[in-house]
Design brief:
By secondary structure, the protein is mainly β. The protein folds into two domains: 7-57, no CATH class; 92-302, no CATH class. The chain has helices at residues 6-9, 12-19, 27-30, 35-42, 44-53, 75-78, 138-141, and strands at residues 60-65, 69-74, 88-91, 104-109, 112-118, 121-125, 132-136, 158-162, 167-175, 181-187, 192-195, 214-216, 219-222, 234-238, 243-247, 259-266, 269-276, 282-287, 296-302. The protein has a four-stranded antiparallel sheet, with no helix packed on it. Strands 8-9-10-11 form a four-stranded antiparallel sheet, with no helix packed on it. It has a four-stranded antiparallel sheet with strand order 12-13-14-15, with no helix packed on it. A hairpin with a 5-residue loop joins β9 (167-175) and β10 (181-187).
Length: 303
């Protein structure tokens, strides 16, 4: 007598509904059960549906070591009493083995990570399910000041989600052959590039910004790679309105010494941290009310 499989007992539609309610951290193992399950869980549309249907969110981080190795850290397991839970595991970025191994993280949003590893291509990657999407930017590179490629380093890239259109957007900066600054967006929903003419607040000097934007409150945020002036220190791009704006940090930071800034989320609020060359502590400032300058509050200092 032939042994029945789970597919003989449960219809595929029901299996799909069950998967939508499985915690995200278990999906990677379920992908290994069969080719059918692998295909089902790796579908980009499944990842979006899972985000809305899963009853429990996964608090996790992805750390990149020297631009070559990525680790998935389950924060819930890390701070739980369950010592048997898998807290850290190595994950493989979606690149061919024969490709150069170095890659750079350009942004993240709702479990997806925007990566760059190869000239003319960006990659949107879900480290939990292993699914990925390749994005070609060759049409931008052909018009760019830098022949056939886009500069990384301190150029403000970003990745975020537009709730009004249910769409993920990759934001790419570039300079034309006349040195004029531009931003283009790639829409994952339409699988196409959006060439828009949003007015920048001022000449940015693309080489002076943190390359990885922070997505928060429907917008992508960047800070200068080296802080020189507290005024208009944070650049904001609203994904719904497709407009730019800027907010200031604290005058107390001063401008006499070079200070490195970084952005983070703390307690559901926008925060920045800074460390100068001669400082022994890292200060963390939290904006208690979004875009209200007077709400900046010193949270804590760490050695």
């Amino acid at each position: 007598m032939k042994k029945k499989s789970i597919h003989d007992i449960l219809p595929l539609e029901l299996i799909h509904r069950i998967f939508l309610r499985v915690p995200a951290k278990h999906l990677a193992r379920l992908r290994c059960v069969s080719k059918l399950w692998y295909s089902l869980i790796s579908d980009p549309h499944f990842a979006e549906m899972h985000f809305h249907h899963s009853p429990t969110s996964t608090n996790a981080c992805v750390f990149v070591e020297k631009g070559t190795v990525a680790y998935f850290v389950d924060l819930d397991a890390l701070f739980s009493d369950n010592n048997d839970a898998l807290q850290v595991r190595k994950v493989s970025p979606p690149f061919k083995l024969e490709s150069p191994p170095h890659f750079e993280v350009l942004g993240s949003c709702r479990g997806f990570v925007l990566l760059h590893q190869h000239e003319r291509f960006l990659v949107v990657w879900n480290p939990l399910t292993g699914s990925s999407k390749l994005i070609s930017y060759s049409h931008i590179a052909s018009r760019s000041k830098y022949k056939d490629w886009l500069p990384l380093g301190h150029h403000p890239y970003g990745f975020g989600y537009d709730t009004s259109k249910d769409d993920y957007l990759a934001v790419v900066p570039w300079q034309d052959k006349h040195g004029q600054d531009h931003f283009d967006c790639f829409s994952l929903r339409t699988n196409s590039w959006i060439d828009f003419n949003a007015a920048l607040p001022k000449p940015l000097g693309f080489s002076d910004w943190d390359s990885s934007g922070l997505f928060f409150n429907g917008a992508i945020h960047w800070v200068p790679s080296i802080f020189n002036d507290y005024r208009d220190a944070i650049l904001i791009f609203d994904l719904k309105e497709r407009t730019f704006s800027m907010i200031s940090v604290l005058e107390q930071l001063g401008t006499s010494s070079r200070i490195y800034l970084g952005l983070a989320l703390l307690g559901g609020c926008l925060a920045f941290y800074n460390r100068g060359f001669n400082r022994v502590k890292t200060e963390i400032w939290v904006m208690k009310e979004y875009k209200v300058h007077s709400s900046w509050t010193l949270s804590d200092s760490y050695l």
